[in-house]
Automatic annotation (TrEMBL):
One of its GO terms (cellular component) is mitochondrion. Malonate and methylmalonate semialdehyde dehydrogenase involved in the catabolism of valine, thymine, and compounds catabolized by way of beta-alanine, including uracil and cytidine. It comes from the Eukaryota. This is Methylmalonate-semialdehyde/malonate-semialdehyde dehydrogenase [acylating], mitochondrial. GO terms for molecular function: methylmalonate-semialdehyde dehydrogenase (acylating, NAD) activity. Its EC number is 1.2.1.27. Keywords: NAD, Oxidoreductase. The gene is LOC110497902. It is an enzyme of class 1 (oxidoreductase). It catalyses: 2-methyl-3-oxopropanoate + NAD(+) + CoA + H2O = propanoyl-CoA + hydrogencarbonate + NADH + H(+); 3-oxopropanoate + NAD(+) + CoA + H2O = hydrogencarbonate + acetyl-CoA + NADH + H(+); (R)-2-methyl-3-oxopropanoate + NAD(+) + CoA + H2O = propanoyl-CoA + hydrogencarbonate + NADH + H(+); (S)-2-methyl-3-oxopropanoate + NAD(+) + CoA + H2O = propanoyl-CoA + hydrogencarbonate + NADH + H(+). The lineage of its organism: Eukaryota, Metazoa, Chordata, Craniata, Vertebrata. Pfam families: Aldedh (PF00171).
Amino acid sequence: MCYSSSVPTTKLFINGKFVESKSSEWLDIHNPATNEVIARVPKATQEEMLAAVDSCSQSYHSWSETSILARQQIFLRYQQLIKDNIKELARSITLEQGKTLADAEGDVFRGLQVVEHTCSITSLMLGETLPSITKDMDTYTYRLPIGVCAGIAPFNFPAMIPLWMFPMGMVCGNTYLLKPSERVPACTMLLAKMLQDAGMPDGTLNIIHGQHDAVNFICDHPAIKAISFVGSNQAGEYIYERGSKNGKRVQSNMGAKNHGVVMPDANKETTLNQLVGAAFGAAGQRCMALSTAILVGEARSWLPELVDRAKALRVNAGDQAGVDVGPLISPQAKERVNSLIQSGVDEGAQLLLDGRNVKVQGYENGNFVGPTIICNVTPQMKCYTEEIFGPVLVVLEAESLDDAISLVNNNPYGNGTAIFTTNGATARKYTHKVDVGQVSVCGPMCVRTLHLYSKTCTQQPLFSMGIQFYTQIKTVTSQWKAEDSTMKTPAVSMPT
Ligand code: NAD
């Protein structure tokens, strides 16, 4: 493939240097609003990936022994640099990912909260003590880093998700190898530069780019002890299996189909606005999007108003004034979303609002799909069984709360769910009976504080999971005998 020299190239970050890859294989990065090529990203060569992981290994000893207060100071400076540069980070996200500038700032802000949290490392890494477990004997635990850790990130949150990964890993004393999404690497590179400016020593963070070969390299390299993955089920299941077979810790946070249950006693105005915001914000490309609504009883009559609100959203390029819904990441994503909408129609659902032919003046080549609402959906339909990951709300109906609960519990996905009601007993019953890790009452779900293993429906608070994931526990038992209690004979029996 021949490239114009004016197209900027994405660098690798190896041993504290931003270096041009020697790879012969490059991928184009497009602006999703225009499909123009805006940059190129390399598929890093084996030598480059080896250099990156070696750099992590070599810097591990000194970084893990750097005092916790010195590590904390770097992250205190880092959070300030991110705050000072939030607009620039947001611009790079909108250019590569397509989301609106306001939403891109939210993306950075949610990641920033994790960085702020790392600054509490002096309390987060505390161990436990139990004095006098027997005479003159105390036991205590240390939380220690585990070594070289790696992160593999998706395209939909170019700031927040990398910031879920390396700050927590590194503040614990690990070194880090990151592979951002090959579709949106620019924001990660800016974040790496800011971390370096905050004082992070060379070699502690290394960044490689690529697709399957880079992922396989991470799953297989013996120096890497743990992998954090966020992305689709297909990739997550593969990485979980391959990484754990190689003896690594792996956390795989995967796809979603989040249900919002609307009871007829809910506050109609607020509920409809929340549903529309959570279904169509970020063009539905959020793991916590409320992509499925279950209207219970009389709430079924709210559909026309739901459609009116969704219709009123403005579809445009992410950097345009007043935009609500930006483009999808790629033409392939647009085609996939459109075909899932069509599958609903073909299987007998009713298309109340069809965003497939939306026209955006001045951006005719962009990957736009307008807000779409499909009703009369049944659990067997493909538009219900698959994650759509676009601005599409599928609507099911239920006679009662119990019917709604069984619908949700029969769906294999379970990132989160929401119930809209003004009745406390209804909300309580839902939160206790629903088999989903994160439940929101009278509000859309957000990724501010929680982050889940979607496949198992279990819920893990991200931040404490971060500390647990990125540390290992060493237990020390010490017996400092007073001089007058010197042992006179060996103790060969277990004490009783
Ligand atoms: P993706 O799985 O296509 O890509 C994620 C990463 O895996 C990328 O770095 C990519 O290079 C790599 N990858 C892609 N396909 C692979 C394969 N077959 N084998 C090995 N590696 C592969 O995901 P995406 O499209 O970038 O992101 C969207 C998905 O991420 C959605 O399913 C969304 O629900 C999910 N997501 C989940 C969470 C969560 O916390 N559970 C958060 C955000 C996004």
